[in-house]
Amino acid sequence: MKIIQPAFAGTLESSDLQVRIAPNPEGVIDILLDSTVQKQFGAAIETLIREVLSNMGVESASLEIEDKGALDCVIKARVQAAVMRGADSQEIQWSALS
């Protein structure tokens, strides 16, 4: 999927995260992560985000993520929602979401 517009998903409530995504003119994935559990799980969270982006075919995007201790399933759902909104896509590719 190609990110064509800025979009966001999620909240800043406890156990959630907010994902802001935008097109990246440099043609790479750029992730800025701010997490309450950064020291313990920052690397794992970033790996999961990159995996979701790869599964959805995103090759270029800038993401700003504020995590308040979200579980993996929430992280995946929020990233997927932000990608679909940023790509202005209504079509769900179920095989990419697993």
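^ that was protein a. below is b, sequence first then the tokens
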Amino acid sequence: MAAVPLLLAGCGAEPEAATPEPRPVRAVTVEKREAGTPITLTGRIEADDEAILGFRIAGRVLENSVSRGQRVVAGQVLVRLESQNEMNALRVAQAGLATAQAQLTQARNHYERQETLIGQGWTTRAIYDQAEKARRTAEQAVEAAEAELKAAHDLVGFTELKADAPGTVTDAGPGAGEVVQAGQAIVRLARKDGRDAVFDVPANVLRTVPGDPEISVFLTEAPTVTAMGRVREVAPQADPVMRTFEVKVGLTDPPEAMRLGATVTGRVTMASGAIIEIPASALTRSEQQPAVWIVDPETRTVSMRNVDVLRFEPATVTISQGLDTGEVVVTAGVQALHPGQEVRLLGSSP
């Protein structure tokens, strides 16, 4: 009978909990490497001082005598508008001035006679005052006519678009017969011999390039044609479509072969020094800060550690603080881990 209680007790016993299997993960061993990878971008040659010229009045283009790439001198006529209306207005203003001048001559002669007569007592003060008023009115009429004539001359001059400085035409604009508006871009003029290499640079590249770097620029189709330069201007706002920043590199003594509009390649080396890079998949977050899982080589357990990220790349991240050489960082399976969990590194024995 004693065997029965023992049998019943044995049936009610709970089995021992099974030990969880280590979770398989992939990991890398942290190493430092020397930076200094060159960055290469493609750009174009532009003038460092470029102006857009346009007419002050609207009209129809009569003649466009310039072409792209043409060198011009200061004061050279580039484009003409039809000027019949302006010439007619000029002739009207000239006739108006001639009439005003004739009236002034008549008023002055009458005033001088009245001035003589009043001195001799042969006229009244009222007649003299009227003659003086007529003279002043005629003088003011001449001044107004002269102003109208000057304005008419200016309008005629506005029918000619002239180069304001010596330079090279980079865009010739509308041709003969086209109607243009006041202020419309007609000619683009590079006003100096200085040239820039212009690049569209992503934001992450701007962050990694050292301050005031020396940039090597060469013609894309002729790499032996080279020049050196430094950053002269960085656009304050990104392009709304490409999300890149326009960077202008002022070139020092560029060769003649680097003509305006030519395609060039620029190369700059990133700041040197030892850096730590890990795969981007290793990065997670803890307390709203970047973090990684560290594997203890003795216990094969993991713990989370916050790190400081210097820069992000599509496949890697550069760590500035938080990791040291020789540490093991989990790169795959980071979302399924918890502190103290035992892991098995894939590719190693269990």
